[in-house]
Fold this protein.
Amino acid sequence: MQNEGGTAASRPQIHGYLSEEARAGWYRFAERHGTNVSALLEALGLALDANRGGKKKALPPLLKEVVGEARAIASARSGRGRGVGAGGGISSRRP
């Protein structure tokens, strides 16, 4: 599940707009656990992708709760009441 490949310039970027509290939460969590936000995102992305065939019911309770919160945030930011739109969410940006 580890992906160390390439230099920072050769890896795609991910960009998201976060509240100050959420940004601070990512950094505090990473520091408490002896890692960094980029490594957490890398590991989480690989783990989530490995579960892509699983059903929502198979998700651990904490992840189900986070997905629900994420949907609510995406809906509120999109201005359309559903999904991720131009007004928010996480987007992938390649150099």
User: Anything to note?
Assistant: The chain has one domain: 14-93.
